[in-house]
Amino acid sequence: MSLHRSEVNVDARAHQIEQHGDAAFPLACYQGDLVANSVMWHWHDDLELILISEGNIAVGVGTDVENMCAGDACFINSGILHSVWRADDNACFYRSIVFQPRLIGSMESIYWIRYVRPLSAPDFPQMIRFRASHQNEAEIISLLSQAWETAAQDKEGYEIEVRYIMTKLLCRIALFSPGVPQRLSGKEYRDMERIKQMLSWLEEHFSENVTVKQIAQSGNISESECLRCFKRNIGCSPIQYLVRYRLRQAAAMIAATDQNISDIAVACGFLDMSYFSRSFKILYSMTPTEYKAKCTSI
């Protein structure tokens, strides 16, 4: 199995479009450097496990934010809007496994009935945090690390070993009781669906002259509720999110194409080159030109 750099691309619903693994073996391993890139808000039908390998990381899930440190891990359920970013200015690295639960067994199997189906129950948490300092949680973290290492090494027969470890892992998670229910309330669920709609619209129209009124209309809510919804769920205004999204798109184009940087800025919705350069440097700690030189040298 090839190891992937963690990059999130979404479709018009903010739904991640990458296929994780393939139909025969629906699992993929990723490693991410949050200094280079945070993981923007997105969702997918797969289950996800994240292991923090270095630094302090914030994981946003629904309206909750969990601050985690090296050695900790978390489980993110299917269909949940989430994001990952640095909790401070230090180096920040993580590993993740994203997979379809059918890897464990078909819907008619005892494995699915006893250990996969409970994860989709209304009262099962949207996210569970595992701490290395807690003995029963450390076992789950150890299994996650084993599964990631085994899959990443890509040795003959790794699929059998990974499936075995992931079955044990999912069993532990299905039986795990975090103590405090973390499932979304009715209001939180409505918020998340509205955010999904508005992010989808933004990602279709990010290069245009966008207003808060248009964003609010895409979610069928008022402008004031749009502002509150973004603040509650994402921690910033819709325009702040839009600028950050435009910068991420610009960075991807700078790294992947030979287009002139000013043309890229305009294509991503920036008409003021000075503002674009300042904003880019704040996010990436270097100018667009320096970023292009760095990408070219890799």
Uncertain runs are 8-17
- Report the count of strand segments: 10
The CATH homology group name of the largest domain? Regulatory protein AraC
Strand order of the largest sheet: 1-2-9-4-7-10
- Beta-strand share of residues: 15-25%
How far do the termini sit from each other? 23 Å
Structure description:
The protein has two domains: 172 residues, Regulatory protein AraC (Jelly Rolls, Sandwich); 112 residues, Arc Repressor Mutant, subunit A. The protein has a six-stranded mixed β-sheet with strand order 1-2-9-4-7-10, with helices on one face. It has a four-stranded antiparallel β-sheet with strand order 3-8-5-6, with no helix packed on it. The protein has 298 residues and is an alpha+beta fold. The longest helix is centred in the middle third of the chain and has 20 residues. It is 44% helix and 18% strand.
Question: Features of this protein?
Answer:
single chain, 298 residues, alpha+beta, Jelly Rolls, Arc Repressor Mutant, subunit A, 2 domains, 6-stranded mixed β-sheet, 4-stranded antiparallel β-sheet, 10 helices, 44% helix, globular
